[in-house]
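I'll show a typical protein example:
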Amino acid sequence: MRYSADFLAKSPESVLVGLSRTGSRDAFAEIVRRRQDWIRNLMRRCCRDAALADDLSQQVFLQAWRSIHQLHDAERLAAWLKRMAINTWLQHKRRSDPLRDADEHGESDSSQQPTTGIALDLDRALATLSEDVRQCVVLAYHEHMTHAEIAEFTGIPLGTIKSHIRRGSQKLREELAAYIEPQGTAT
């Protein structure tokens, strides 16, 4: 059965998940429309490459479509997609990628770039962190995951995650010091 775009746009995600589980491509397309920017941003912050982030995001949504019937609690859609995205990123990291250290060709894609100065500076500062440190910082601060959740998702020991986040946060504070107002100055 086909549903109107207006009906789908106004439907809660739980309805869209239910319809998707019965094979409605239109309902799943609406889920993708609502969630794609979030997943792309997560992937971009993890890999620092807009083109790769788009590819990984597509992989996440393809996998989600293939396994949507396994999502029994529609209210868990966001957590389910986040887990799928992180697993997709970790699988990519584990594979031997010959282009891994190639020049960042995605930097010129202005449609994927943040529009504010602080967002650009944050992305540049994140790029100075090592891959594991950046991943822990992004999952903690951007995705609001606890240290235990990060450890569960990544397989990195809890103590290492805490160290990565502490060191990464300190380096980001140093890189973005210009945005921090001096303490004790009055005008």
In short: DSSP finds nine helices and no strands in the chain.
